[in-house]
């Protein structure tokens, strides 16, 4: 089976948000299916470091262990940690948890950000607004998961049809609808 979520996320970060991943420090929050599904393409983008933080360190460590050889092949430092000590000053912070769906707030402190950090919540719409507000309040650039959704659909279309669609007008139209809601 193919999972285009990670390809969509990377494309949204690098093309739509205009943020380079190569050489960056990335914090990936959560160790569920969403985070596991994007880890491979994130590694392929060659950031300097990816830290996977989760409330259950063992679950994050199991995913990291499965990807460790792949990360080494790409020159990426990959490690797992708990939510209590994820590190500080990341270039890109990706929330792959379901915290936004439950209105639970951001499960790490603002020390994970630096001015200009790209902070992405994989959720979009009303569920992502508290995360985006938190990110902006701490000097980061907030982004929701709508671009990831559109880009993963575009990647799936390309996989099936052999043609990469122009996703920009689709994203713009959906952004209008989501922002109006």
What order do the strands of the largest sheet run in, or round the barrel if closed?
3-2-1-4-5-6
Shape: globular
Task: Estimate the strand proportion.
Answer: 15-25%
Distance between the termini: 34 Å
The helix count comes to 6
- Output mean pLDDT: 94
Please provide the ordered H/E string of secondary-structure elements.
Answer: HEHEHEEEHEHH
Instruction: Determine Rg (CA atoms, Å).
Output: 15 Å
Structural class: alpha/beta
Major β-sheet profile? 6 strands, parallel
Helix content percent band: 40-55%
Residue runs with pLDDT of under 50 for 5 or more positions: none
What order do the helices and strands come in, and which of them pair?
Layout: H1 5-16, E1 25-29, H2 33-44, E2 49-54, H3 57-73, E3 77-82, E4 92-95, E5 118-121, H4 129-137, E6 141-143, H5 146-161, H6 168-180
Parallel strand pairs: 1-2, 1-4, 2-3, 4-5, 5-6
């Amino acid at each position: 089976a193919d999972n285009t979520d990670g390809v969509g996320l990377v494309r949204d970060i690098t093309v739509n948000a205009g943020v380079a991943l190569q050489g960056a420090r990335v914090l990936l929050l959560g160790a569920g299916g969403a985070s596991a599904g994007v880890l491979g393409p994130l590694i392929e983008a060659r950031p300097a470091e990816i830290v996977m933080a989760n409330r259950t360190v063992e679950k994050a460590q199991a995913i990291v262990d499965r990807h460790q050889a792949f990360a080494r092949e790409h020159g990426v430092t990959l490690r797992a940690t708990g939510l209590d000590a994820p590190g500080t000053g990341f270039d890109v912070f990706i929330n792959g948890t379901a915290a936004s769906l439950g209105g639970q707030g951001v499960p790490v402190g603002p020390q994970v950000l630096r001015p200009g950090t790209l902070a992405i919540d994989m959720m979009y719409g009303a569920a992502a607004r508290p995360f985006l507000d938190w990110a902006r309040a701490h000097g980061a650039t907030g982004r929701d998961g709508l671009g990831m959704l559109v880009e993963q659909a575009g990647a799936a279309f390309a996989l099936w049809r052999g043609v990469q669609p122009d996703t920009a007008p689709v994203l713009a139209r959906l952004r209008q609808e989501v922002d109006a809601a």
